[in-house]
Here is the input.
Amino acid sequence: MKEMTPLEEIRHSAAHVLATAVLRLFPEAKLDIGPPTDSGFYYDFDLDHAFSGEDLEKIEAEMQKVIKENQRFERFESTREEAETLLREIGQDRYKLGRLADIPEGDPISFYRNGEFVDLCAGTHVNYSKKIKAFKLLSVAGAYHRGDEKNKQLQRIYGTAYPTKDELAKHLEQIEEAKKRD
Here is the structure.
């Protein structure tokens, strides 16, 4: 497991909060992955409903609720068999069993739990959801499962997160400026 920077931890935790919010609003959604990126984070979803701009606003509002609940991010390890059973029980076996299979034999298999949400994940995360002070969902794009066009196209929700509202505002301003120059 590669150590994450504090900013990556905020962004990775925001991705989990995004998935928590999506499952609250769209319980039938199937999850793939939600890593931090250089400029933010994303999470890939398999859902028949196409996410709209209005949906992003609802999801953001739900994320704010999750953050206010100050959910603790708890790591726990399991055996491969326990992991398979858990993923089936929570209805997230479609993509997650493949991700589980990617974990080399002998490596620890870890999950993170925040509130009602559980995800197969190496981590790391902030301790509590309230540490996510400033985030914004930016867009939805199509993304093929595992980047292979032969696979199903999933919906990728992109977002960004910063330690402070000022840093987030500055970043969003830069995005707007760049759009004007395009």
